[in-house]
Write a structure and sequence with these properties.
Largest sheet of chain A: 6 strands, mixed
Number of strands of chain A: 10
Strand order of the largest sheet of chain A: 6-7-8-3-9-10
Helix content of chain B: over 70%
Order of helices and strands of chain A: EEEHEEHEHHHHEHEHEEHH
Number of strands of chain B: 2
CATH class of chain B: Mainly Alpha
CATH class of chain A: Alpha Beta
CATH superfamily of chain B: MetI-like
CATH architecture of chain A: 3-Layer(aba) Sandwich
CATH topology of chain B: MetI-like fold
Number of domains of chain A: 1
Shape of chain B: globular
Oligomer: heterodimer
Number of helices of chain B: 11
Largest sheet of chain B: 2 strands, antiparallel
Helix content of chain A: 25-40%
Distance between the termini of chain B: 36 Å
Strand content of chain B: under 5%
């Protein structure tokens, strides 16, 4: 394993009953920066993300082969502490999913589970909301329901909620899919701030977003990783014909 | 048309009972115990009896029912066991209350030697309300968006933490409504109560004391022709009590929901 790889995926396949969603994926994801996973619908992007923090465990009839390593540790090891794993690898979903509780309680939800004291929580919540660039907008109404925020604010709240656990890796599954361009811009701005400290794996909601924010990208098609590399190379000189056809819009 | 006739019947019943019953209602009627079989005095001991019995029924029935619903929804997938449990509760829901009374009489009163008592009656009613609590709780747990669970797990929550901190609070209004229905049924139940809690007019002193509930009191007063006046008074009190409980509960639910959205 070379230095600087946060996540190493080795010959990983994933099945929903008999349907194979991921086919023998080999992929190294470097520490820090934004790795973007793009491709048409049903190409296995979400499955890949959910495999990384083992949310796939919740799906009945799912199975996998191969291995995924986080800092050299096999995350599918039976001795793996799932709670700990999910705290290290946080996830934001495609639609904003605030819990029907206050803004404060949403952000404090994760830290509370691991038994942080009330005093600590105030600091954690403020820090997380500041990191997600939401603090200024909500600092005066932390105890109102999170459902009253706008869509973009809700999604940044979800990012703050994940950041409150101080994870090492952030999984973002089309975090801007339901948002307007202004909210999208503010989330992308947040991502630029975060990539200095976190390893971010992002499924963008379109190719343009991939080209705007990514450092490295991987192109997925029907559960296959077609090719992977730095963003400028994939978008200007792709090696594979299918990648070229997709980024130039010949299919999609 | 259907709505109007339903409303008409409801108003007619309410009007009849309140017209006959309200003149009887004085503070003394509520605060005095019945004298000479209920011909005179008030109904204080039967109010206490009703509340004690319903309290015991909810105390046992609600946690058991909600627990079963959580088990069915969160801890098992559709399987033979869950189908058997669900079939069992559906059957239980169709059993007439007098059968529950018979069961309570044979099992709690005689077999477990608890005698005619608040405990025997309460446990019988708990069994009777179980299907209602289970099915309403199951429905409202089912209605909690799966994304909430996913969020909780993704933030490192265990199953128990997810159920207690996310699922149950979201399902609470529905669960509460189910419990409220059960309270109504427990208060109104007569047949099962006579067989298991007795019909003593003496003020209860412990969970093992026999009691008479308002509905039983009403039944005996009317049936034995002791005093129609007192019977209507009891009926009116019963209706008002259920009304008050419903209004307070609805207010609590509204407040809770408003707090969360």
């Amino acid at each position: 394993m070379s230095q600087g790889n946060k996540i190493v995926i080795k010959d990983f396949s994933f099945y929903y009953d008999s349907f194979q969603a991921l086919q023998n994926i080999d992929l190294d994801i470097r520490s820090k920066g934004i790795f973007t996973v793009f491709g048409p619908a049903r190409s296995g992007k979400t499955t890949l993300l959910k495999s990384l923090n083992r949310l796939t465990d919740l799906i009945f009839g799912a199975s996998h082969t191969g291995a995924i390593f986080l800092d050299g540790t096999d995350i599918y090891d039976p001795k793996m502490d799932l709670t700990h794993l999910r705290k290290r690898i946080g996830m934001v979903f495609d639609l904003p999913t605030p819990l029907p509780i206050s803004i404060f309680d949403n952000v404090a939800y994760g830290p509370k589970l691991s038994g942080n004291t009330k005093k600590c929580l105030n600091e954690i919540v403020e820090k997380a909301l500041k990191s997600a660039v939401l603090w200024e907008e909500v600092k005066d109404r932390l105890h109102t329901s999170a459902l009253r925020l706008s869509g973009g604010q809700q999604q940044r709240l979800c990012i703050a909620r994940v950041l409150a656990l101080e994870p090492e890796v952030l999984l973002l599954d089309e975090p801007c899919s339901g948002l307007d361009p202004i909210s999208t811009a503010s989330i992308e701005e947040t991502l630029f701030q975060l990539k200095k400290d976190y390893t971010i794996i992002l499924v963008p909601h379109n190719i343009q977003q991939a080209s705007r924010v990514a450092d490295r990208v991987g192109f997925f098609l029907n559960g296959d990783l077609v090719e992977e590399g730095p963003v400028y190379q994939i978008f200007t000189k792709p090696k594979d014909k299918r990648t070229e056809d997709y980024v130039t819009g010949r299919f999609g | 048309m259907g709505a109007i006739s339903t409303l008409a019947v409801m108003i007619l019943i309410l009007f009849q009972i309140l017209k006959e019953g309200l003149p009887v209602l004085h503070l003394r009627f509520f605060l005095e115990s019945p004298k000479s079989m209920g011909r005179e005095g008030g109904i204080f001991s039967t109010i206490i009896g009703t509340m004690a019995l319903t309290g015991v029924a909810i105390l046992f029935g609600a946690p058991l029912g909600v627990g079963t619903a959580v088990f069915l929804r969160e801890y098992t997938r559709e399987s033979k066991i869950s189908r058997i449990i669900r079939f069992g509760t559906d059957c239980l829901a169709g059993v007439p209350s007098i059968i529950f009374g018979l069961f309570g009489f044979v099992f709690f009163v005689i077999k477990l030697n608890m005698g005619w008592s608040i405990l025997s009656g309460g446990l019988t009613l708990a069994a009777m309300i179980l299907p209602t609590v289970i099915s309403t709780a199951e429905e409202s747990i089912k209605a909690v968006p799966s994304s909430y669970r996913e969020v909780s797990y993704s933030l490192g929550g265990t199953k128990w933490q997810t159920v207690t901190r996310v699922v149950l609070p979201s399902a609470l209004p529905g669960i509460f409504t189910g419990i409220l229905l059960s309270v109504g049924r427990s208060i109104g139940e007569t047949a099962a109560v006579i067989l298991t809690a007795g019909s003593s007019l003496v003020m209860p002193t412990s969970l093992f004391s026999p009691i008479r509930t308002m509905s039983v009191h009403f039944y005996i007063l009317a049936r034995e022709g002791i005093s129609m006046e007192m019977a209507y008074g009891t009926g009116a009190t019963l209706i008002l009590l259920v009304l008050i409980i419903n209004v307070i509960a609805q207010w609590l639910i509204d407040r809770y929901i408003r707090h969360r959205t």
